[in-house]
Design goal:
Helix content: 10-25%
Shape: elongated
Largest sheet: 9 strands, antiparallel
């Protein structure tokens, strides 16, 4: 059999056709890659351009928004702005740099931006243009829509565009939202910002004029911490608004406030904080119509800058303590604007609590710990540490009666609201702009107004754990007025023309109040409440979380046992007094005397018909402030009336005494002694000398008025007139159960009386008197 052997060619390779096909495939792939890279390069370049244009539009939008609601003009489309040749030199800035720089940085031949502003009007739905009277009727809500559009061409002459839109209300722009609106029918009103009527339970609105009202929301405790039970401060908002229409109002001004308590440490701020938080600020002060951070005439760092204070680590406290600890520092200068301009000890030191819970001065300003309390106000979206709160008055208002039982809700009666409103207006009407201090003592005026002492006694028929009685504590705060505010107030009062701010014949309060930084706050949940006799009354002072003003937890009272006792409410007069009552126990304000700078008021209670005998009270005004009061009535002869701290003299009769009946009240110890600096010439031994001495001075008073429930008593002649043993007896035809005896004192003719020198020594030059023994005729028998 034969086999055929197949042989390969001696040489093999690719044919020309195969090579040509490979070259074509490779070329196509390379060309595709080249095209892709070109496309990626163009897309990257376009993305950079679009990113730069987007940044320009966003920056321009922020600039328009920050210019204020009223500055968003003109309506409709504005004239386009085009950049083709403008430069972008920081050395020669101009008004079109915002678009010129964008065109140059994006390497565009031309860039055009158009702006359009449309105002939308409505209620549940909105439309544009305005309906009839829409731009003038404050009941019609509105907002403005801004549209910015940019257009440009690329290197291939391709057209591109981009647009952004923002809806703007005045609420988002500034704390000084809008000026009061003009009357309906007058053009040029501001934006319309509506909200629900803020005059809810516990809120007392104060009419600023016929077209504007001011009200302060009920302060709300703020909590912090892992368990959610650490109270760090309180928040409240002051609103100026038009009279309510269909349960809603138009907001004219809005001032957000927060009062915080803080544990601070010197040196804990500064470089330890992000850069944006390192710069200390001067105080935010009232300027006459809004709050602004003070700018000194000569550029200078705020006093807190050199101290670099910050919040102490490891303490649960408000985030706003960063601003409080950093800013809340004053200088000893008498010309600088201060956070606490009415501090009277001449010091700027801070204080801390020692192991005995007492305040001690902190001298270590490098890394020492201290406690503080601040008020912060939101200004243009930022929280700023403001000048301190100053309480000018605090007191209790009559609360509502339900089914014949007094004080059954925490809401003030209509009569009490009207009375308090008139009181506030009368006090504020006295401001003239001549001084930053209050014109009179509002607390003294409140205390002297017996119309507020209603009811005279809250009677709880039977001791019970369920018969709750409620109080309402009200405070009036008015800031210290710095020069800008005083100037604005003075100007307003002088503008007496027909179309002026204070036309002739206008009530003073209507001219003054729109320019005063005043707050009337419901402090029922914040005040400190105590019972004069805890065996008779149980008073709630610890739970600050009630959100029902009609049933506040603070001051809630129940009768524990038969008898008579008082519910005493008190507040500190500075920031710490508004920060909640836990601050009263743990953290003082910036003033070392803050513990003693308090206001107080009380409400008498009887449980189960009262004590074994009838009771009445005596209030003495004028004189030393520490008089003694005794009464003679029934079987009681010259029996002393006790005076709890911050309260009236409480007179308790013996068992079986029934009132009303006639009796007497005797008052003594109503003088006071101080010193007067005088130039004195005296003969000391055989030498005569002249020196300036603090001369003991005796101020003597006389009982000038006396009444009980508006019925005058008969005032007897003073016994031991002009002596420290002087007393006066007043006879009343009928002293009623629970009555309030009012005794008024005025300084007597011939007072004051100055001591004379009985003996002394002097130096050889005859210009120094020492070792003085004074002759005080008021101490003689």
């Amino acid at each position: 059999m034969k086999h055929r052997i197949l042989r390969r060619h001696d040489s093999e390779g690719f044919s020309l056709l195969e090579v040509l096909i490979a070259i074509v495939v490779l070329s196509v792939g390379l060309l595709a890659l080249a095209a892709l890279q070109g496309s990626l390069s163009r897309a990257s370049s376009e993305a950079k351009v679009r990113g730069r244009v987007a940044a320009m539009l966003a920056g321009r939008m922020d600039e328009l928004r920050s210019g204020g609601y009223g500055g968003l003009t003109p309506e409709g489309a504005a004239t386009p702005v085009t950049s083709t040749t403008g430069d972008c030199d920081p050395a020669t800035p101009d008004a079109t740099d915002w678009i010129d720089c964008t065109r140059a940085q994006a390497a565009l031949g031309s860039l055009t931006t158009t702006q359009r502003v449309d105002t939308w009007y409505g209620a549940s739905t909105f439309a544009t243009p305005a309906p009839a009277l829409g731009s003038q009727d404050p009941r019609v809500a509105q907002f403005k829509r801004i549209t910015l559009t940019a257009a440009w061409t690329d290197a291939t002459n391709g057209a591109h565009s981009m647009a952004i839109t923002s809806d703007v209300s005045a609420m988002a722009l500034t704390n000084n939202i809008i000026v009061p609106p003009d009357p309906i029918g007058v053009g040029g009103t501001g934006p319309i910002v509506r909200t629900r009527d803020p005059a809810t339970a516990g809120v007392i609105p104060i009419a600023l004029s016929t077209e504007s009202t001011s009200a302060t929301t009920n302060p709300v405790p703020e909590l912090v911490g892992q368990t959610g039970n650490q109270i760090i401060g309180t928040r409240f908002t002051v609103l100026n608004y038009t009279p309510p229409f269909a349960s809603s109002v138009v907001v004219q001004k809005r001032f957000e406030n927060e009062v915080v308590k803080c544990k601070c440490k010197y040196g804990a701020g500064g470089n330890n904080l992000p850069e944006i938080f390192r710069t200390a600020q001067w105080p935010a002060i009232w300027t006459g119509d809004r709050y602004d951070v003070h700018v000194p005439d000569t550029a200078a760092a705020a006093p807190g800058q050199s101290l670099a204070s910050g919040p102490k680590n490891g303490v649960d406290q408000s985030a706003l303590c960063q601003e409080c600890c950093r800013d809340h520092h004053d200088t000893t200068s008498t010309t600088d604007v201060k956070f606490d301009p009415e501090r009277d000890d001449g010091s700027v030191a801070k204080y801390d609590l020692n192991n005995s819970n007492a305040l001690v001065i902190v001298n270590n300003t490098n890394n020492g710990d201290y406690v503080d309390s601040c008020r912060l106000v939101r200004i243009d979206g930022f929280w700023r540490t403001a000048s301190d709160l100053y309480a000018r008055q605090f007191g209790l208002l009559e609360t509502e009666t339900v089914s014949g039982e007094t004080a059954k809700t925490g809401v003030p009666t209509t009569a009490a609201v009207n009375l308090y409103t008139n009181f506030v207006k009368s006090f504020l009407a006295q401001y003239t702009g001549s001084s930053g201090l209050p014109p009179t003592d509002a607390q003294a005026a409140f205390t002297a107004n017996t119309a507020f002492d209603v009811p005279t006694v809250v009677a709880i028929p039977t001791a019970s754990n369920t018969d709750y009685r409620y109080m309402h504590g009200r405070a009036l705060y008015v800031d210290h007025l710095e020069q800008k505010a005083r100037d604005a107030l003075t100007k307003a009062l002088a503008d007496t023309g027909t179309r002026g701010e204070c036309p002739t014949g206008t009530a003073a309060e209507d001219c003054v109040m729109p320019h005063l930084p005043f707050v009337t706050a419901n402090l029922t949940e914040i005040a400190k409440w105590t019972a004069s006799n805890t065996a008779i009354l149980t008073i709630n002072s610890g739970n600050l979380l009630s959100t029902t003003p009609a049933q506040p937890s603070g001051g809630r009272t129940i009768g524990k046992a038969n008898g008579a006792a008082n519910n005493l409410a008190s507040i500190r007069r500075s920031n710490s007094g508004a920060a909640v009552n836990s601050v009263q126990a743990n953290i003082a304000g910036v003033d070392p005397n803050d513990d003693t700078q308090t206001y107080a008021d009380q409400q008498p209670f009887t449980v189960g018909g009262g004590p074994s005998g009838a009771t009445f009270d005596v209030r003495v005004t004028g004189g030393s402030g520490t008089p003694f009061v005794f009464f003679t009535l029934g079987t009681d002869t010259d029996r002393e009336c006790l005076k709890p701290a911050g309260a009236d003299h409480h007179c308790v009769t013996s068992s079986g005494t029934v009132l009303p009946q006639s009796g007497t009240v005797r008052v003594s110890n109503y003088w006071y002694e101080n010193t007067t600096s005088q130039s004195v010439t005296a003969t000391c031994g055989t030498r005569s000398a002249t020196d300036t001495l603090a001369v003991p001075t005796f101020h003597n008073y006389v009982v000038s008025s006396a009444s009980v429930n508006a019925v005058a008593g008969t005032i007897g002649l003073p016994l031991n007139d002009g002596k420290i043993t002087e007393s006066t007896t007043i006879t009343f035809s009928a002293i009623p159960q629970g009555g309030l005896v009012l005794v008024g004192l005025t300084e007597q003719t011939g007072s004051p009386v100055y001591a004379t020198i009985s003996s002394c020594t002097t130096n050889g030059g005859g210009n120094k008197i020492s070792n003085v023994v004074w002759n005080k005729p008021w101490t003689l028998p």
